[in-house]
């Protein structure tokens, strides 16, 4: 009974994959993170897809084809936003000649709105294995999909918030889903089509889940959702994201909160006061998308460049040199060279610690997909992307330089494969990864690492020199 996963997309997808993984592990399945390690054995493989860009969809198709080709005994269950919108296209990836020749179908599509049903599959299969039924794994999955057990899955809001892992297989920090869906209708975005309108978990339930993570000894939890700035309690209408953050912090004692992506227009009563709390991590990722007011208007964004500047200034006023990153789309229809220069100048002016830039991707079903005039060539979009990547590298380098020698808190992560040490083959000591309060990925040599610190727990460290050749942002040294 072997289980593996592959996740594309946002932190929300990562959390939901963790919950699915945990559900299988609790039923006795062995989790293998890399399917290449599985040799000639039947296993379940869940691919959690993303539809934000065409590149994410292309990657999903490539992964599915590769798994079908290299693992003939694997049973693939594809879910997520791409599966929600393109079920037929994904189903067609399996070679019909195989199923027509009498072999069981091995590729199953679970729409994103039914993703929570996967939380019940492990139990169904475990019970079938115990009863020693003769069906093959694909036949059992087919039977499950057609059974009342599958069809009786929790629907609506309750189903969307069932993802609550007791243990995390691939992350040392906890994740807490507080929101799903989005009420915005940005011209380029397909996610609301896949995830629907914004819904939120109630404050008391969010607190219960956070307290459970704290009791397990986790030092940090990431508040995640499609658009967490749209958090809204139906029981207490005035209770938005600032109120939730304050409520969670007032009723816990040690666990820190890190926010996933937030909107530049986020403001309102108590917003920055809530973020100023010492247990809110000094790391903010803004969904900026452009520095040109005309492009922002065409995108359907509800803020302008002035609002972005004001947001960054306020964040820097409440935290000591926080790590501020942003998303930028290049080549949106109608983006002129002047528009792009405004974006580049804004990024330089605000001195972002990192820029997640990507070229515009025409998404079916969105308003922007119908725009015919002013389309930007892929070549031009890529050239603009490269400019932003250079600005991002400079911003990251300068940020790390400012923090060299400074002391901050970090959370230990699980060691991965040992990075190659340039120029040395012998006497190599392992390097342990950690993530600082302000989102600097540090490496700590085992020579100075306190072995009592377990993944997921916090410790104090001094940030050292940059270490990109080792796969980290910088070295760090624990401070007692």
Question: How does this model look, in words?
Answer:
This protein has 480 residues and is α/β, with parallel strands linked by helices. The chain has 3 domains: 2-155, Rossmann fold; 158-403, pyruvate-formate lyase- activating enzyme; 407-478, OB fold (Dihydrolipoamide Acetyltransferase, E2P). It contains 17 helices and 18 strands. The chain has helices at residues 11-25, 54-70, 81-85, 87-91, 96-100, 118-130, 137-146, 148-151, 156-160, 191-195, 203-215, 241-250, 271-275, 293-299, 305-318, 337-350, 378-403, and strands at 2-7, 30-31, 43-49, 74-80, 107-109, 174-177, 179-180, 199-200, 220-224, 256-259, 283-289, 323-330, 354-359, 407-412, 431-436, 441-445, 458-466, 474-478. The strands form 5 sheets. Strands 2-1-3-4-5 form a 5-stranded parallel beta sheet, with helices on both faces. β3 (43-49), α2 (54-70) and β4 (74-80) form a beta-alpha-beta unit. α1 runs parallel beside α6, α6 crosses α7 and α16 runs parallel beside α17 (378-403). The two termini are 44 Å apart.
CATH superfamily of the largest domain: tm_1862 like domain
**Would you identify the regions where 5 or more consecutive residues have pLDDT less than 50?**
423-428
Class derived from helix and strand content: alpha/beta
Number of helices: 17
Radius of gyration: 23 Å
What is the overall pLDDT average?
90
Shape: globular
User: In the CATH hierarchy, what is the class of the largest domain?
Assistant: Alpha Beta
User: How many strands, which pairing sense, and closed or not: the largest β-sheet?
Assistant: 5 strands, parallel
The strand line-up of the biggest sheet is 2-1-3-4-5
| Beta-strand residue percentage | 15-25%
Quaternary arrangement of the chains shown? single chain
CATH architecture of the largest domain: Alpha-Beta Horseshoe
User: Termini, distance in Å?
Assistant: 44 Å
In the residues, how many domains can be counted? 3
CATH topology of the largest domain: pyruvate-formate lyase- activating enzyme
How many strand elements? 18
* Relative helix content: 25-40%
